[in-house]
Specification:
Shape: globular
Helix content: 55-70%
Number of helices: 15
Oligomer: single chain
Number of domains: 2
Strand order of the largest sheet: 3-5-4
Radius of gyration: 23 Å
Strand content: 5-15%
CATH architecture of the largest domain: Orthogonal Bundle
CATH class of the largest domain: Mainly Alpha
Largest sheet: 3 strands, antiparallel
Structural class: mainly alpha
Number of strands: 5
C-alpha cells in the first residue's frame, strides 16, 4: 500500500501555478516505518560504532584533545555542502589571528560553531531553552550573523514562499510548505521530538532531519540547521556525550544520493530507503571518527613523550603542548595569554616545540608570526 507522504497545496502566484508540499506528521504512517532485518542490522552496527566513538572520547586526559577539532571539522564540512570554501586550517588560523583569506566563508563556519556551542549550553542548563523550534531559531540567528543571508530574517521563521531548484516557485524542483502552514508543522515536529514514540532514538534523529529539511522554515541556512539538529538530538538523547560525530563528511561524500534520498521520501514515501542511507552514513562517520581519534591520541602521546625526553625542556613548553589541541594555531600573544608567562618564557616554549617538530611557523614573517600544530591538523583533514 502506498504511503501517504503529505499533500500538495496548489495556488497561483504571479499568474503561474505553484505546487507547495505539506508533509504528513511524523512518525511515518499508513503504513508505519518497517524496520526489517537489514535495517535492524544497520541500526545495531551504527549504534556500536557510536559507542566506540564515545569510548574514544572518554579515554583521553582532556575532552579538548578531540572535541575542538571534531566540532570544527563538522562545521567546515556542513558549510561546504552549502558551497562554502573555507578549510579547517583557514578556520583555526582565523581564530588565532582574526585574519583570513576568505573572511566571509570563515565567518560562516565560525558562526556554525557558535550556534552549536550556544544550543548545547541551553540544553545543558536547567533554565535554558528546550530542544524546540525556538532554540533552532536562536541557532539560526547566530548562523546568519554578519554573513551571506544576514538580510534573510535571521532567527525568524520565513514569512514568504521559498523553493529549491529553478528560478521561481513555478518552475522549482521542490516547493516547501507555504508560510501560513509553518506554525502547525513546526509545532507537530516539536511535539513528536518530545513524545514517547517507541522508534529507536538514532532512527528518530534521522527522521527529524528529513522533516525539518522538508518544512524548510528559514529563507537560508536550512541545511546547516537541519544537520545541527541531528548533532543536538544524538547528545540530548544520550547516544553521545559530546558532539564528536562529524556526520556531514559522510553526507558530503554521497551528496547526490543524500539529495535523492530526501526527494524519494517526499515523492514516494521511501522512509526506509532514507533510513538505510542515513544509518550507513552514521556508521561510516563514527568509524572514521574512531580512526582519527586513535591517530590523534598516538600523535599527542608521542609528541608529549618526545618533548619530556628533550634536554632542557621547561614546564611552560609542556603546558603549551597540552593546550595545542584546543589551540592548534598559536601566536606569541595567544601563548602569553594561555600560559600567563613573560615574553621570553613564551618564546622559549614556542622554540622548544618547534625544535621537537611539534609546531611549524606558517606565516613566513619576521614579526607577528603564526605557528601551527601541523601534525594534528593534518590528521584531522586526512592529510
Amino acid at each position: 500500500m502506498p504511503r501517504i507522504t503529505g499533500k500538495l497545496r496548489i495556488s497561483t502566484v504571479a499568474g503561474e501555478q505553484v505546487r507547495a508540499f505539506l508533509p504528513a506528521p511524523l512518525p511515518p504512517a499508513q503504513p508505519p516505518l518497517v524496520i526489517d532485518d537489514r535495517l535492524a542490522t544497520l541500526h545495531a552496527e551504527a549504534l556500536a560504532a557510536l559507542g566506540k566513538l564515545a569510548v574514544a572520547g572518554a579515554m583521553v586526559p582532556s575532552p579538548q584533545w578531540f572535541l575542538y577539532g571534531f566540532v570544527r571539522k563538522e562545521a567546515v564540512v556542513s558549510s561546504e555542502i552549502e558551497g562554502t570554501q573555507a578549510t579547517l586550517q583557514d578556520v583555526v588560523t582565523f581564530e588565532a589571528t582574526r585574519q583570513a583569506e576568505r573572511p566571509h566563508d570563515v565567518r560562516e563556519v565560525c558562526n556554525y560553531v557558535d550556534a552549536l556551542t550556544y544550543t548545547r549550553e541551553q540544553l545543558a542548563s536547567p533554565t535554558g531553552l528546550p530542544l524546540s523550534t525556538r532554540l533552532l531559531c536562536e541557532a539560526h540567528k547566530l548562523l546568519m550573523r554578519g554573513v551571506r543571508g544576514e538580510g534573510k530574517l535571521p532567527g525568524e521563521v520565513r514569512r514568504s514562499q521559498n523553493w529549491i531548484g529553478g528560478t521561481r516557485p513555478g518552475n522549482a524542483r521542490f516547493v516547501p510548505p507555504p508560510p501560513d502552514a509553518l506554525p502547525d508543522l513546526l509545532s507537530q515536529l516539536d511535539a513528536w521530538l518530545h513524545s514517547a514514540d517507541p522508534l529507536p532514538p538514532l532512527i528518530k534523529a534521522g527522521l527529524a532531519h528529513v522533516q525539518f529539511e522538508t518544512i524548510h522554515p528559514f529563507l537560508d541556512g536550512n541545511g546547516r540547521i537541519g544537520r545541527l539538529l541531528i548533532t543536538l538530538l544524538l547528545e540530548h538523547w544520550g547516544l553521545l556525550r559530546s558532539p564528536m560525530l562529524y556526520l556531514s563528511l559522510a553526507l558530503k561524500r554521497r551528496q547526490q544520493e543524500y539529495y535523492e534520498r530526501l526527494t524519494a521520501v517526499r515523492s514516494e514515501g521511501d522512509w526506509e530507503g532514507w533510513t538505510v542511507f542515513y544509518l550507513q552514513c552514521v556508521r561510516e562517520a563514527a568509524e572514521n571518527g574512531v580512526a582519527v581519534a586513535e591517530r590523534l591520541f598516538t600523535q599527542l602521546s608521542g609528541d608529549r613523550a618526545r618533548l619530556l625526553a628533550a634536554d632542557g625542556v621547561t614546564m611552560p613548553a609542556i603546558r603549551l603542548l597540552d593546550h595545542l589541541p584546543a589551540n592548534p594555531v598559536v601566536t606569541l600573544s595567544l601563548v602569553l595569554g594561555v600560559l600567563s608567562v613573560t615574553k621570553p618564557t613564551a618564546l622559549k616554549a614556542i622554540a622548544a616545540l618547534q625544535h621537537a617538530g611539534i609546531l611549524k611557523e606558517t606565516s613566513g614573517k619576521r614579526r607577528d608570526r603564526v605557528y601551527a600544530y601541523q601534525p594534528y591538523l593534518d590528521i584531522l583533514t586526512g592529510n
